[in-house]
Specification:
alpha/beta; nine-stranded mixed sheet; three-stranded mixed sheet; 8 helices; 26% helix; elongated
Length: 336
């Protein structure tokens, strides 16, 4: 019995080795008869199609169909397709003999970046996809200039936090990057913008913003401030929209002159000397009449008003006290 067991094990081992050799020889004779492409996340916008995958393999000079299966490296196919900007993940395998099955996940953008003349989408891993007119995806918009030191991927935690909060998601419409320490949020509420500073500690910054919205804005009004800054610790700094700028008034001596009153005559001199302002004001405040009992002509400081002339319709009335003037009598001519 003991030897029978050893013999049985040797037979089974030989069958396994023989089957493996037969399968290997069989697979060397098999060729790839078909390529089957499956797009897993094709809901909504479809910018990756099965025909695009086949064309991408042909563009990379990878021949699969009618090739022996043992000569096809599925890992190379996965690496080549993963380099496409529209593909996020790839998985390849042979099924049913010579059928090559390719599972493709198209890229899932989480934000759209406007950097100068460039416009592209970014997924959660930071992979970029050039924006085209045929693919318009509703994602948060980020506007600014990025470099190798400050990439759009650094904003992903902030954007993801906002997307997971229903209130903040409805509030935020766009991010404007002035520099690494001034990230401006444009809210859906018109009238102001929000400066959150850098990308760190944004959870506490949004808590301060919500508190400011609940306590201050209903009292001051939503159009009272133009900028709300939560970039500093333990405080919120808001800038008023209408700033009163005090302008220093420049002294103008011409503004001190009193305009001429048409009903009052000003005393002036024919000489070029300036008119004394105080004398003019005092003189204009009192009627100018001749002083009683003055001798030697008119007072130099007083000016008589010209006599009023009767109108043409009114005839001067005769004064009864005044006697009519008698005509002078003719004197007799002297006789020669």
């Amino acid at each position: 019995m003991k030897y029978a067991r050893y013999i049985l094990l040797l037979v089974l081992l030989s069958l396994l080795i023989g089957g493996a050799i037969w399968a290997r020889n069989k697979s060397r004779d098999e060729v790839c008869t078909e390529i089957k492409v499956e797009i897993e996340n094709n809901e909504g916008v479809n910018f990756v199609t099965p025909s695009y995958v086949i064309e991408e393999l042909e563009r990379k000079h990878i021949i699969v169909k009618d090739m022996p299966v043992w000569q096809i490296n599925v890992e190379d196919i996965e690496n080549v397709l993963s380099q496409s900007q529209y593909i996020e993940a790839v998985e390849c395998m042979f099924v049913n003999g010579g059928v090559l099955k390719i599972k493709v996940s198209q890229i899932v953008p989480v934000m759209r970046v406007f950097d100068g003349d460039q416009s592209y989408y970014v997924n959660r891993q930071g992979k970029r996809m050039t924006a085209v007119a045929a693919c318009n995806i509703d994602v948060p918009i980020v506007k600014g200039h990025f470099s190798n030191r400050f990439t759009p991927q650094r904003l992903l935690p902030l954007v993801q936090y906002v997307e997971n909060d229903s209130a903040l998601k409805a509030l935020v419409t766009m991010y404007c990057i002035s520099d690494t320490n001034n990230i401006i949020i444009v809210p859906s509420i018109k009238g102001h913008v929000i400066n959150i500073g850098n990308c760190r500690d944004f959870e506490s910054k949004f808590k301060k913003l919500k508190l400011f919205y609940n306590k201050v804005m209903p009292v001051k009004g939503w159009m009272y401030y133009d900028t709300i800054s939560v970039k500093w610790d333990h405080q919120v700094v808001a800038t008023r929209r209408d700033k009163i700028v005090e302008v220093e008034k420049v002294y103008d001596p011409n503004e001190d002159e009193i305009p001429d009153d048409p009903g009052t005559m000003r005393v002036s001199s024919d000489s070029k000397a300036p008119v004394n302002k105080m004398t003019t004001e005092k003189t204009a405040s009192k009627p100018l009449t001749a002083s009683p009992g003055a001798t030697g002509g008119e007072n130099k400081e007083d000016v008589k008003k010209p006599p009023e002339q009767p109108s043409a319709k009114e005839k001067p009335k005769e004064n009864p006290k005044e006697k009519p003037k008698e005509k002078p009598k003719d004197t007799p001519k002297s006789k020669k």
